[in-house]
Specification:
- The chain is mainly beta and 559 residues long.
- The chain contains 6 helices and 32 strands.
- The strands form 7 sheets. Strands 1, 19, 20, 21, 22, 23, 24, 25, 26, 28, 29, 30 and 31 form a 13-stranded antiparallel beta sheet that branches. A 5-stranded mixed beta sheet has the order 6-5-8-9-11, with no helix packed on it. Strands 12-17-18-15-16 form a 5-stranded mixed beta sheet.
- A hairpin with a 3-residue loop joins strand 20 and strand 21.
- The N terminus is likely disordered.
Length: 559
C-alpha cells in the first residue's frame, strides 16, 4: 500500500534525509532557495563535475618562473573574462571554467604579450600547460592562432565527451541523447525493473549517476535512470537542442564524483551567447513507409510527429544571456493486441457456479478468432487498439555576469509525458503520467588565487500509472482507500480476467546543496568541499484483489 522511505546517512561527501513531496510548491521553493546559492561562497563541497580546470606555468626564455604575470581566459562565445595572477613560481590555475572555446592572454613587465586562441575545454577536463614568454615590450604580441588538442595529464579517470555537434549530427533514435552513451567503451544496457539503465565497466545500473549542470538529475525516483519511471517518456532529461556537451567518466573516479560507483554521466546545458542563434526541427513518420504486420491484411494507422526548436542570445552583451528550447511529440500507433480468453461455454459454466464474478468477466471479451476445437475452453481475442504517447518538454537557461569575478547560472526543465498502453480487455487500458520539474542554480566567484563554486539543485520526477477499470468504486463508496475496487481472477487454465489491476503513485523529490572551493598556494593546489542531499521516495500502490484457483474444479467450487 503506502510506503515512505526515510534514509539518514552522513559521510564526508553525502548526507541523505527525507521529506514528503509538495508538488504545487516545487518551482516556487526552488526559486526561493536561489538566494542561499548567492550567499554561500565558501565552506563545504560538491559531487559532480561539469566545468574544466586549466592551469599552467609562465616562464622566461631560460625556463625561469615569471611571477606577477596577469593571465586572462576569455570565453569566445560570451566574452566573459576570468583573470588570475601568477605566483612566485610562475604558476596559475583557473577552476570551474564553463565548457566552451577560450582565448588566453598573458602579460608581464619586460615581456611580449602572449595570446593563444581556440582552446577548447570540455566538462571534467583538467589540463596543465607551460607558456614561455619572449623578452620585449608588452605592446608587442605573440599570437598563436590554433592550439593542439589538450590532453588530460592531471587525473587518472577514463572519460569521454560528446559536444553539441556530435549530439545533433549522430543518428539518435527519437532524438534521445541516451543512445549516444552506448557507443562509448565499457557501456552496456541494463534492462528490467521500472526503467532501462546503463552499466559502466560492469557495475550495476544504480551505480551510474546522472547530473545536469552539476546537480543530481535521475529521471526515476526509485533508481538511477535517464528515463522516467516506466519509460513513459521519449525525451530523457533534456532535449538535445539544449545539450552543450555529454561527458561520461568511469574507472578511477576523483573524490568529486561522490556517490557514483560505476561512473557518472554529466550533461552540460547550452547557454545564450553574444550572437542570436536558434533552430527549428520536425521529425514526421507515417505508416506509408512502414512494413505491414504479417498477421494483418493491411497496414495499421501510425503517426509519429516530433517537433520543436530553440533560441538563445544576449539580453545585454557580455553580461546577461538567455537560452530556451521546446520539444514536443505526438505518437499514435494502432497496435495489434492478442490475449487468451475463456470461451462462451467456459464463461457460462463459471458464472453459473460463481455469479459474484460477473463484474470481473464484464471486462473480458469473447474470442474473435477460430477455436482450436469445438470443445476448446479458451480462444484468442485479437484487437487493433491505439497506443499513445505525448509530451511537451521545456528547457530554459539564464546566465548573468554579476561582477568582474562572479557569475550566476539558472537552469529549469519542465515536462509532462503521457502514455496509454492497450491491454486487450474492455475499458482497462494502462495510463501513465510523469511530472518532471528540475532546476539548478550555480554561483561562481573567485579571486586572484582562489575560486568558489556553489550549486543548488531541485529534482522532482513524480509518476502515476493506473489501470482504468481500477478507478471505478464498486457500490459508490469506500471505508478506506481502494477498499471496494474490482478484483481479478488468476488461473492455471490458460486465461486470466486481467493482467493488472492497480493504481501506483510515486513521488520522490530531491534537493541538493553543494560547494567546492579551490585555492592555489604556490606549487600546491587545494580543492575541498561537500554536498548535502535531501532525498525522499513515497510509493502508494493499492492493487485489486487477485483470486487464484488451481484447476476448474477449485474455481467452480470456490476453494
Amino acid at each position: 500500500m503506502k510506503r515512505l522511505s526515510r534514509i539518514h546517512e552522513v559521510t564526508p561527501v553525502w548526507l541523505f534525509a527525507s521529506r514528503r513531496a509538495e508538488i504545487p510548491f516545487m518551482l516556487a521553493r526552488f526559486l526561493g532557495l536561489v538566494l542561499v546559492c548567492l550567499l554561500v561562497s565558501r565552506g563545504t563541497g560538491w559531487g559532480q563535475v561539469t566545468t574544466a580546470t586549466f592551469s599552467g606555468t609562465v616562464t622566461d626564455p631560460t625556463g625561469a618562473a615569471v611571477p606577477d604575470a596577469t593571465v586572462t581566459m576569455t570565453q569566445d562565445e560570451t566574452g566573459i573574462v576570468n583573470t588570475k595572477v601568477t605566483g612566485r613560481d610562475g604558476d596559475f590555475q583557473f577552476d570551474f571554467l564553463r565548457v566552451g572555446t577560450y582565448t588566453i592572454n598573458i602579460e608581464a613587465k619586460g615581456f611580449k604579450r602572449y595570446a593563444a586562441k581556440g582552446i577548447d575545454l570540455s566538462a571534467g577536463q583538467s589540463v596543465r600547460q607551460t607558456y614561455p614568454l619572449q623578452v620585449g615590450d608588452v605592446t608587442e604580441s605573440v599570437i598563436v592562432e590554433a592550439s593542439a588538442p589538450l590532453v588530460n595529464t592531471v587525473s587518472a579517470e577514463q572519460s569521454n565527451s560528446f559536444d553539441s555537434k556530435a549530439v545533433k549530427d549522430l543518428p539518435l533514435a527519437r532524438r534521445n541523447f541516451s543512445g549516444l552513451l552506448r557507443v562509448d567503451s565499457g557501456v552496456t544496457v541494463a534492462t528490467g525493473g521500472s526503467a532501462t539503465g546503463l552499466r559502466l565497466n560492469g557495475q550495476g545500473k544504480n551505480g551510474t549517476a546522472y547530473s545536469v549542470d552539476g546537480t543530481e538529475s535521475s529521471g526515476n525516483p526509485e533508481g538511477r535512470n535517464a528515463g522516467n519511471f516506466g519509460a513513459v517518456n521519449f525525451v530523457d532529461l533534456l532535449s538535445i537542442e539544449s545539450i552543450e556537451e555529454v561527458h561520461i567518466v568511469k574507472g578511477i573516479l576523483p573524490a568529486e564524483y561522490g556517490g557514483a560507483l560505476g561512473g557518472q554521466v554529466d550533461i552540460v546545458t547550452r547557454s545564450g551567447t553574444n550572437q542570436i542563434h536558434g533552430s527549428v526541427f520536425e521529425n514526421f513518420q507515417k505508416e506509408t513507409l512502414n512494413s505491414r504486420d504479417p498477421f494483418l491484411a493491411a497496414k495499421v494507422p501510425f503517426t509519429y510527429n516530433q517537433f520543436g526548436g530553440s533560441i538563445g542570445g544576449p539580453v545585454k552583451k557580455n553580461k546577461i544571456f538567455l537560452f530556451g528550447a521546446y520539444e514536443g511529440y505526438r505518437y499514435n500507433l494502432q497496435k495489434r493486441v492478442e490475449i487468451t480468453v475463456p470461451t462462451q461455454a467456459t464463461r457460462t459454466q463459471v458464472l453459473a457456479a460463481q455469479p459474484v464474478y460477473a463484474s470481473t468477466f464484464a471486462l473480458v471479451p469473447l474470442p474473435n478468432q477460430p477455436l482450436s476445437s469445438p470443445t476448446a475452453t479458451t480462444g484468442l481475442y485479437d484487437q487493433i487498439a491505439p497506443a499513445i504517447n505525448r509530451d511537451n518538454h521545456f528547457d530554459v537557461k539564464g546566465d548573468i555576469r554579476l561582477t568582474d569575478n562572479s557569475n550566476l547560472s539558472l537552469t529549469y526543465t519542465h515536462a509532462r509525458p503521457f502514455g496509454q498502453t492497450p491491454s486487450g480487455y474492455i475499458g482497462n487500458d494502462n495510463l501513465q503520467y510523469a511530472y518532471t520539474d528540475r532546476g539548478t542554480a550555480s554561483y561562481v566567484i573567485g579571486g586572484a588565487t582562489w575560486t568558489s563554486e556553489t550549486r543548488l539543485g531541485y529534482n522532482n520526477n513524480d509518476a502515476h500509472t493506473f489501470d482504468q477499470a481500477f478507478e471505478t468504486i464498486l457500490g459508490g463508496s469506500e471505508k478506506f482507500n481502494a477498499g471496494n475496487r474490482l478484483g481479478r481472477l488468476t488461473t492455471n487454465l490458460g486465461w486470466n480476467t486481467q493482467n493488472s489491476m492497480q493504481d501506483l503513485i510515486i513521488s520522490g523529490p530531491a534537493t541538493i546543496l553543494g560547494e567546492k572551493f579551490s585555492w592555489h598556494l604556490g606549487k600546491h593546489s587545494l580543492k575541498f568541499g561537500g554536498v548535502y542531499t535531501h532525498h525522499t521516495n513515497e510509493r502508494n500502490n493499492p492493487e485489486g484483489v487477485a483470486y487464484g484457483y488451481q484447476g476448474l474444479s477449485d474455481l467452480l467450487n470456490n476453494i
